[in-house]
Amino acid sequence: MKIPHIIHICVFLAFMIGSTGIMMSERQEPIVTDMTAVRDLCDTLPLHPIEGIWRFPDDHINVLILRDKRIGATRSTSYSLYVVESEDTRLHTGDIVGKIIETPDPDKYKLSLFTKRIGGILSMPYDCVATLRSDNESMVIKTPKIKVKLNPLAFFSNFWRIARITVENPLTSLPAGLIRIYPS
């Protein structure tokens, strides 16, 4: 069974540099039943630029991003990511797979993706930065990077310390993120 790409990276990095603690997605009545119902919901609500249906293209998961509190005078600055459709059989329609929190920069958000299921609830968030592009049609996710360089040639003569071989894969420069599906 293939583990979703971005979630797999987040689990690994959370293990390597530690998590900020255990935070769990809350259980609640499912508001997501299928793509048609979610589109109808999006058509009836006034939406913030990040709200709507988005796709994680590397993971083949469609999510609904929706503001957490829509009732009352206080404006919520957090959003939940609900699974709408997923090829991963471990994720169910309506699962909350993450949270987005606004930051002082209107185009950057703190994105917490849940990396583990404890007692049937997704938990163990891994924090990333999501940047909304100027056209509001995509978000780029940046995760912390761990870089280790070892030079085994340092033990050899001076010539071998100078010569270095590196290989660059252009696919690694492609950004990870989300693409807006609806409304667009």
List the helices and strands and how they pair.
Layout: H1 5-17, H2 35-44, E1 52-56, E2 61-67, E3 78-86, E4 96-102, E5 108-118, E6 121-132, E7 138-142, H3 158-162, E8 176-182
Antiparallel strand pairs: 1-2, 1-8, 2-3, 3-4, 4-5, 5-6, 6-7, 7-8
What is the ordering of alpha helices and beta strands?
A: HHEEEEEEEHE
Q: Biggest sheet: strands side by side, in what order? A: 1-2-3-4-5-6-7-8
How helix-rich are the residues, as a percent range? 10-25%
Identify the overall geometry: elongated
Structural class: alpha+beta
Distance between the termini: 32 Å
Q: Indicate the radius of gyration in whole angstroms.
A: 20 Å
Mean pLDDT: 79
Number of strands: 8
Strand content: 25-35%
Main sheet characteristics: 8 strands, antiparallel, barrel
Spans of at least 5 consecutive residues with low confidence: 11-29
How many domains, in number, for the residues?
Answer: 1
**What is the tally of helical segments?**
3
Structure characteristics:
184 residues; alpha+beta; 3 helices
Describe the overall structure:
With 184 residues, the protein is of the alpha+beta class. It has three helices and eight strands. It has one domain (5-182). The protein has an eight-stranded antiparallel β-barrel. The longest helix is centred in the N-terminal third of the chain and has 13 residues, at 5-17. Residues 11-29 have low confidence and may be disordered.
